[in-house]
Design a protein that fits this description.
The protein is mostly beta strands. The chain has one domain. It has no helices and 15 strands.
């Protein structure tokens, strides 16, 4: 996937991201391995950081390490949107990751999308994505709504998984002031951790009654880190 013209700079993220001002602490170095809980690891500018789920690291949203400027992780790439008209744009979204234990004591992985923006096309910049934060939710849970910051809803941790698939909501979208998507969600959004971590999706938008309308497809690769891994 080639991104021809990155729509954002790291200095401009504050204009469209709702990430908290404070940045949760990361430990320096790689994941130690051999633990009984998931370890999240990132590499930025040749430096490696991790958080291992003990103490204050559990159930806290983590953006980029403060040593690397903090803020959200940004993913961006090519996306297509189809709703009466079809558009090919560049999509960028920013977010944070955390691990937590659900009410049964099982570990889960949460993603919170704090901002998103479309650009790089004649009409793309007129599309406004809103209703943040969005959350990834385990797709087997029914009903799919609501999408909230609740550990019981997040993706079950699997030490052997090469990717994690979830639903993402609730998303709103307007174009030239016209509402096209109102608090709806995408199915089968896949997060692939590791080097060049990415989000991939190809789905209609669904409301809470599972009625569908517009469609959205995208491949977004991490933009402001070398890797984001779940071990």
């Amino acid at each position: 996937m080639k991104i021809t013209s990155p729509p954002l700079t790291l200095l401009g993220l504050a204009a469209w991201s709702l990430s908290s001002i404070t940045t949760a602490a990361w430990d320096t170095g790689t994941c130690p391995g051999g633990g009984s809980v998931p370890c999240i690891e990132t590499e930025i500018n040749g430096n490696t950081y991790h958080f291992n789920g003990t103490g204050g690291h559990a159930d806290i949203w983590h953006g980029r390490p403060a040593a690397e400027g903090g803020g959200d992780f940004v993913f961006e790439g090519d996306a297509s949107f189809d709703c009466t008209i079809g558009l090919n744009c560049t999509l960028a979204w920013s977010g944070e990751i955390k691990k937590c234990q659900d009410s049964n004591g099982n570990w889960r992985i949460g993603f919170q999308i704090n901002g998103a923006r479309m650009s790089n096309g004649a009409l793309c910049s007129s599309f406004v994505l809103s209703n943040f934060p969005w959350y990834l939710k385990e797709p087997s849970l029914t009903p799919h709504c609501p999408f909230v910051d609740n550990c019981d809803d997040f993706i079950p941790y699997d030490a052997t998984a090469s990717s994690y698939t979830a639903n993402l909501g609730r998303i709103s979208l307007t174009a030239i002031g016209i509402g096209l998507v109102n608090e709806e969600h995408l199915h089968s959004v896949a997060f692939t951790p590791g080097l060049g971590a990415s989000f991939d999706f190809s789905s209609n938008f669904y409301d809470c009654d599972e009625s569908s309308d517009c469609s959205f497809e995208g491949e977004l690769m991490i933009y402001n880190a070398t890797s984001l891994d779940i071990q």
